[in-house]
Description:
Layout: H1 4-29, H2 37-62, H3 69-80, E1 84-88, E2 91-97, H4 110-126, E3 135-144, H5 160-171, E4 180-189, E5 193-200, H6 204-214, E6 217-219
Parallel strand pairs: 3-4
Antiparallel strand pairs: 1-2, 2-5, 3-5, 4-6
Helix pairs in contact: 1-2, 3-4, 4-5
Amino acid sequence: MTTTKNIFQRLQGLEDEIQKLNNTVFALKATDIKAYGENYEELSVHAALRAERIACQLRNLVFLTERPGKSAYMRQAAKAHNLKIEDTEGILSITLPGLLPKRRLHTNTAFLCEPLNFALQDHLKNHSLPLYQSCVICFSQVYDETFPMRRIRDYDNLEFKQVLDVISSYVLSDDTGLLCDTYHTTEIGEHDLTVVYIMDKAVFPDWVKSRKNSIKIISEIL
């Protein structure tokens, strides 16, 4: 049973976490990114993950009441993440924030996956989603062109698996490698974001060619 004392203790813990986040942001401001790029990267990832934990802990406090309630809140969270789901000519696209490096096991992955799960559920209320039997899943990692290219990461170091687990439960009959191929590409754009494209295998070759001709891209080409 949650009591006023429990809530106060949680808020006090959050206050401590926010202070630690402030300290990390202060350290980032004092770090020369050109001279100490690795330190800057480590601090920035640490700050981002701490901020996600804070957000998840605050969500739990919101859910203690029925106002606005979990569904209403998750709808707002999905909007805050700028999650978009579109189905155009048999190609399903899901737009997400730029993915971070893989997290340690103790780090909460609910920050993005819970709003994504809700967005897919909500989408199904008014739209259908294709159920793919044999498909290609394309992860397009888009990086803001105004920032240095050295921050582009290897695909193996990003948290694609958690996102795929959520999406696959809605649109894939089976995510086994026998039926599902994956493709990764890095693009340069106006903002950091990740777009997941899902399509039948027969559609994929023409899709790749059209993408290469229309966008700024750095790809792993088969």
